[in-house]
Design goal:
10 strands; alpha+beta; two-stranded antiparallel sheet; six-stranded antiparallel sheet; binds 2-acetamido-2-deoxy-6-O-phosphono-alpha-D-glucopyranose
């Protein structure tokens, strides 16, 4: 998405009591977080931005000052305003079992996808083992390039035993919604993350140079009765996604009864 699409006047909501400079600040911050304004990209000049959005230059200046203070933007004297390095990463908590669509919607981002494969087939030996399938049992296969806010974020191959989703065309925008409709949405999952470098075809689809860093994530999800409902392998762009885990100390062990005290 170009800066012109981000700063499209028709999409800039000016209704309501929030001051315009705060709205503009949020617009830029969200676009940076979503990767729509990539790291090191130059922003249009102050006057151009004001014209594009139909606001005053004072509003633009105030918004930019705030974003520079926040560390979202940097200003270089004489040359302009740029998206600051390493900003705009999406932080995803590791402890909640949510879907890509849910994750992005909670950030106010629209999702879409390009289907690379949506079919029924026999599983690979690895898939048959992970999904605990009987010999000859088929799987529904969902291979997508997933985008949020127009930016490619992940390549994802989800494999589901066909008995849970007999017709792959039931999956439109969200796999989890389709599973939910059939009463087999997972309630628990194990996820493994590994650092990797993108192969040429993966990089090409994600719009990155070959060898770019990525997170390779494998998720195995379970139904309440312990059956495996999903085996998904994804490549998430390393430059936009942070998975964040919350760590807590385990609960203190129960105090041993004091000597000599009996109920
Ligand atoms: C996430 C999951 C993936 C799941 C998908 C469902 C990770 C690493 N992976 O991308 O396992 O299949 O969500 O999303 O979080 P959907 O319901 O939007 O299709």
């Amino acid at each position: 998405m170009s800066a012109h699409a981000v700063f499209d006047r028709s999409r800039f909501d000016t209704s309501g009591p929030t001051p315009l400079y705060l709205r503009l600040r949020k617009l830029v911050r969200d676009a940076v977080t979503a990767g729509q304004l990539p790291e090191a990209d130059a922003l249009p000049g102050e006057r151009e931005l004001a014209d594009m959005l139909g606001v005053s230059r004072v509003t633009v200046r105030k918004a930019i000052e705030g974003l520079v203070d926040e560390g979202v933007l940097v200003q270089r004297r004489g040359s302009g305003t740029y998206v600051a390095p390493r900003q705009g990463r999406i932080e995803q908590p590791l402890s909640r079992l949510t879907s890509f669509t849910q994750d992005m919607q909670s950030r106010g981002l629209d999702t879409d996808a390009t289907w690379l494969d949506r079919s029924v087939s026999l599983p690979s030996p690895e898939e048959a083992m992970v999904l605990a399938l009987s010999p000859g049992e088929q799987v529904s296969r969902f291979h997508r390039l997933r985008r949020a806010g127009g930016t490619p974020l992940a390549l994802e191959l989800a494999v589901v035993p066909r008995k849970f989703l007999p017709d792959p065309s039931e999956v439109d925008a969200s796999l989890y919604t389709a599973l939910g409709r059939r009463g087999v949405r997972p309630v628990r999952a194990l996820q493994r993350l590994q650092a990797t470098a993108l192969l040429a075809f993966e990089a090409g689809l994600l719009g990155l140079p070959e060898g770019s860093p990525a997170l390779f994530i494998q998720r195995v999800s379970y139904l309440p009765d312990g059956r495996v409902v999903e085996f998904t392998r994804s490549h998430y762009r390393g430059d936009t996604y942070d998975f964040v885990a919350e760590l807590t100390v385990s609960a203190a062990p129960a105090e041993p009864p004091s000597p000599g005290v009996h109920a």
